[in-house]
């Protein structure tokens, strides 16, 4: 497909990406913590800058990154007519556990009066000794699965155009019939929007992109071949880019049980010529089940397999960018 053909026939970046065979793997955000705050739509492009009441949160996040190396991803979720309460704001906070290997992020949830949001978030991030005074607002929802699906159309039209139909299906069918075990939310920019529609699935923190209505049952219920979700997996937030690429192949070997294993990952060696998109890497992942009956180690080599052209944002006359694509050239189960 030539550049002229793409610009004539496509205006959505995700359609260009998909038509050119761009693989979403390795694009999941790798963060120590995730923060979701209920904020009504509409959401402007520069969402947090348009919310001056949240500036203390942004300032603290910058400070924690500088002083402690803590990476925090903060996003808004749209209030829901069933889940939400007038004059109250829901706060969802997921953090990487302190132990070395883990399966999922640790969750805390509060529903507080609107005027207490910043105070509670600052306590979550830096002053946990203040949290007991908000104990009556704590929600015991550790057993609830939360899916955040990007519908941030002002950020990129592809997110609204392709994200909302999937949200509607997940919300009206899957969440509504889950017996309260699944909630589905609209969220601000998740990214990358060339992989729209995208969602992140908590508490595990798995990212999915280029999603289609036909795969939602498999994504939610996890009954069927894992290979049918291969092309939609962006990766696990607990791993770096090259580790995510390697981990997908291990999932293909182990099946759905893989998502229940605690993992410790290590990059053994990596090409240093390109900090963000290396040509190769050697990765090791140790895993074990909760009860200890299953354990093992995989070692993998990740290599560039070629390049494709993609479009970073939607619209006419947008430039095309050449991006590296990866494959796992060697995968050994060594233990």
TrEMBL record:
Give any Pfam family that matches. Answer: Suc_Fer-like
Q: Which CDD domains match?
A: TRX_Fd_Sucrase
Superkingdom of the source species: Bacteria
- Tell me which InterPro entries the record gives: Aim32/Apd1-like, Aim32/Apd1-like_bac, Thioredoxin-like_sf
Protein's name in the database: Sucrase ferredoxin
What organism does the UniProt record list as the source?
Halomicronema hongdechloris C2206
């Amino acid at each position: 497909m030539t550049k002229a053909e793409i610009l004539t026939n496509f205006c959505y970046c995700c359609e260009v990406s998909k038509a050119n065979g761009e693989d979403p793997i390795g694009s999941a955000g790798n963060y120590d913590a995730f923060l979701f705050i209920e904020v009504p739509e509409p959401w402007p492009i520069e969402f947090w800058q348009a919310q001056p009441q949240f500036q203390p949160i942004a300032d603290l996040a910058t400070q924690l990154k500088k002083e402690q190396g803590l990476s925090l991803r903060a996003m808004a979720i749209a209030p829901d007519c069933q889940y939400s309460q007038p004059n109250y704001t829901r706060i969802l906070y997921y953090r990487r556990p302190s132990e070395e290997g883990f399966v999922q992020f640790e969750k805390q949830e509060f529903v507080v009066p609107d005027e207490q949001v910043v105070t509670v978030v600052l306590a979550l991030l830096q002053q946990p000794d203040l949290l007991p005074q908000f104990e009556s607002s704590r929600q015991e929802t550790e057993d609830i699965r939360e899916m955040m699906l990007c519908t941030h159309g002002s950020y990129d039209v592809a997110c609204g155009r392709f994200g909302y139909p999937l949200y509607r299906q997940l919300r009206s069918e899957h969440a509504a019939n889950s017996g309260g075990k699944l909630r589905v939310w609209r969220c601000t920019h998740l990214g990358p929007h060339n992989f729209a529609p995208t969602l992140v699935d908590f508490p595990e923190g798995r990212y999915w992109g280029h999603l289609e209505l036909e795969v939602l049952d498999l994504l939610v219920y996890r009954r069927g071949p894992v290979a049918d979700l291969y092309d939609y997996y962006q990766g696990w937030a607990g791993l770096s880019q090259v580790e995510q690429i390697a981990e997908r192949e291990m999932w293909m070997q182990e099946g759905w049980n893989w998502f229940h294993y605690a993992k410790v990952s290590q990059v053994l060696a990596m090409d240093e010529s390109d900090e963000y998109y290396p040509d190769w890497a050697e990765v090791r992942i140790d895993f074990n089940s909760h009860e200890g009956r299953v354990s093992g180690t995989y070692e993998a080599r990740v290599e560039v397999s070629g390049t494709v052209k993609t479009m970073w944002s939607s619209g006419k006359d947008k430039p095309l960018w050449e991006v590296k694509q990866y494959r796992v050239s060697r995968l050994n189960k060594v233990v």
